[in-house]
Amino acid sequence: MPSSEQTYGPGGSGELSAAPKLRVDTPERAGLDPEEMRHLVTEVHALTTGERPWAPAAVVVVGRGPVIAVEAAAGWAVRYASYDERTDTGVELPAAARIPATTSTPFDLASLTKLFTAIAAVQQLERGTLDMDAQVAAYLPDFTAAAQHGITVRQLLTHTSGLRPELPLYDCPDDAARRALLRAEAPSSAPGRYRYSDLNMLLLQYVLERVTGRTLDVLIAEGVTGPLGMTATRFGPCPDAAATEDQRRPWAKTERGMVRGEVHDENAWALGGVAGHAGLFSTARDLAILCRCLLTGGAYGPARILGQDHVELLLAPPGLGFAVDQPWFMGQLAGSGAAGHTGFTGTSLVLDRATNTFAVLLANTVHPKRSWGSVGNGPRVAVGDRVARALRGR
Length: 394
Description:
Layout: E1 23-24, H1 27-30, H2 34-46, E2 57-64, E3 67-78, E4 80-84, E5 89-92, E6 99-100, E7 107-108, H3 113-127, H4 144-148, H5 153-157, H6 175-183, H7 198-212, H8 216-228, E8 234-235, E9 246-247, E10 257-258, H9 266-270, E11 280-282, H10 284-295, E12 299-300, E13 303-304, H11 308-315, E14 323-324, H12 327-330, E15 339-343, E16 347-352, E17 357-363, H13 378-393
Parallel strand pairs: 1-3
Antiparallel strand pairs: 2-3, 2-17, 3-6, 4-5, 7-11, 8-11, 9-10, 12-13, 14-15, 15-16, 16-17
């Protein structure tokens, strides 16, 4: 008989398996070049320094197999009181009022939330309650525009529905108006061609909630974060999170002031903080657990959240929710089936099954204002390049 700590996969296959949990050890024990990892930590610290840093705070975790080889934090989780548009400067808090970043600091994940929504969808595929090639209209007949254009669940998961990137849900007076806007939204380009859109994951959220009778936050808590022991991963509010943006028009879409502990994305905020495209907060260590789970084929410790064949479905090209082999943020880790995603707030995650390696970078690049200190995706690429060189060096 299995022990009380063991759990079966959501597909009900009855197969029981376990995968070693993460442990902290040296880069050498992980099969990574220690000199490259030292350079990586130095570079991450440099990202948070100066008057206009890439981000006030950054946390990086790199691992291979069950070993966390690097875990480092730099900068300030809360550095600025506001943004001064007259001088284009951040109004810094007094030194005593700033909050340093630690490896336990939660960050607003932004679009990394999409990965959790995709996993929740694939769990329903595994259970047979969702058909990837079914039309959205089969589950949401009241979404008339999606029905008229034959949008499918697969198109939502692969960003090939043709829906525009977003809608101004934050300008709607209430939930009924927001839902009506989504129901009436037709593709703005022909379905079948890739076009990244938050609306895909919002519609997928409604599909999952209709199929299961449970809200997305419950689905993720019960199906992913709970079984894996990801205790720091949750939808907001998250009062101890790194601060994001002094949100004011015209650079933002709402008038909220300095945002901390509530989701940065305006549409997710308008939807109450729980959305298929954004809203989750997490730590780098928690995301390392998710990476380890997917690299082992869906298991972590005694828990299994997906069967191996469905993990393959999730991560194999073109990816379901996950982006595959994208050097623009993965750097030299791309090319052999690496999968991952980025988030607007400065977050990214890459896992490479070919080398059993993962890298997580969390930052608050939008503090105190979006694009204020940004140097693009260079720092994300640099992390991927360092990890790739560390693999070659060993």
